[in-house]
Design brief:
alpha/beta; Rossmann fold; 2 domains; seven-stranded parallel sheet; 12 helices; 36% helix; 16% strand; globular; binds NADP nicotinamide-adenine-dinucleotide phosphate
Length: 316
């Protein structure tokens, strides 16, 4: 693939960047000052046949229009919500993502966030570090995770991996998605509100699209209630963040463990003083093992494309 011109949108992974540099003609978008990106893209446009982006940096209609030789968008993410898929279909541009290899890590984080939120693990850690154990005595009592009813929005690859994990904690599993499946031990609810009303912990694990934007709204948060906990490892815009913050501040929601935010890396500062939330910076797939596997999948898709072989993980 030495002749393949690849535009890398941001420095997402050192191993991926090194391999793209070694195997292709790599163009790094961030080498251009941000106010001159359009000129930079124009100057490389004829040679760029592939774009590699991720969960934060996608490929919109303007970038597609600026790249007449574009053949493939290989995303370093499973979510493709930042790619204009309709435009890619229209132009015959292939799109790939990185499913499966990240499933375990994201599911691990979802369960970790649920336990950390209910058992206040980060708060207890801060209590020890601040010397409060010695000066003020025992830490506050917290809430049990084992046995809690876990509701999952989107029982796909990640949702099922969360279900499998929480079953080991004796948690009954409920779910909502468009298609009811014949799972013998998971209970289907036909609406998110009914799912929330029948769950103690609500996990968001569906893709982001026009139907799922703000799928967790005020009504859903009210149904989850003052003892309920929201875990978002999907995408920030799945949740109406203003409503989430208001519900947490007012005590209308019990707590939240959040990996993804509406306007990353900006996080509502109103969440910072709350001790019923655990906040992490979009790290669902961020382990050495998984990020290397994701990089190999991006490279494998590009190799397949230039060799006219079937793509490993096609979306379009
Ligand atoms: P997946 O296997 O495609 O599963 C998606 C599930 O969502 C399916 O069960 C699907 O069922 C359901 N779904 C689709 N559209 C829906 C809708 N309109 N309403 C309700 N449910 C809907 O995807 P996955 O690999 O598990 O990944 C899920 C998402 O996790 C990704 O798209 C990404 O946004 C997010 N993610 C986040 C991180 C992170 O770092 N935090 C990392 C990886 C992935 P139906 O088709 O029957 O509705």
């Amino acid at each position: 693939m030495e002749s393949l011109g690849v535009l890398l949108l941001n420095p997402m992974n050192a191993y991926l960047e090194q391999e793209l540099d070694r195997r292709c003609k790599l163009v790094r978008l961030w080498e251009s000052p941000s106010d001159r990106r359009a000129d930079f893209v124009r100057s490389h446009a004829v040679s760029i046949r592939a774009v590699v982006g991720n969960a934060s940096n996608g490929v919109d209609a303007a970038l597609i229009d600026a790249l007449p030789a574009l053949e493939i968008v290989a995303s370093f993410s499973v979510g493709v919500d930042r790619i204009d898929l309709a435009k890619c279909r229209e132009r015959g541009i292939r799109v790939t993502n990185t499913p499966d290899v990240l499933t375990d890590d994201v599911a691990d984080l979802a369960v970790g966030l649920a336990i950390a939120t209910l058992r206040k693990i980060p708060q207890a850690d801060r209590y020890v570090r601040a010397g409060l154990w010695k000066n003020k005595g025992d830490f506050t009592l917290t809430t049990r995770f084992s046995g809690k009813r876990v509701g999952i929005i989107g029982l796909g690859r990640i949702g099922l991996a969360v279900a499998k994990r929480v079953e080991a904690f004796d948690c009954p599993v409920n779910y909502y998605q468009r298609t009811k499946q014949a799972y013998p031990s998971y209970t289907y609810y036909p609406t998110v509100v009914e799912l929330a009303a029948n769950s103690d912990v609500l996990v968001v694990a569906c893709p982001l699209n026009a139907q799922t934007r703000h799928i967790v709204n005020r009504e859903v948060l009210e149904a989850l209630g003052p003892k309920g906990v929201l875990i978002n490892i999907g995408r920030g815009p799945h949740v109406d963040e203003a409503e989430l913050v208001a519900a947490l501040v007012d005590g209308r929601l019990g707590g939240a463990g959040i990996d993804v935010f509406e306007d990353e890396p900006n996080v509502p500062e109103a969440l910072f003083p709350l001790d019923n939330v655990v906040l992490v910076p979009h790290v669902g797939s961020a382990t050495h093992e998984t990020r290397n596997a994701m990089a190999d999948l991006v490279l494998g898709n590009l190799e397949a494309h230039v060799s006219n072989k079937p793509l490993l993980t096609p979306v379009v």
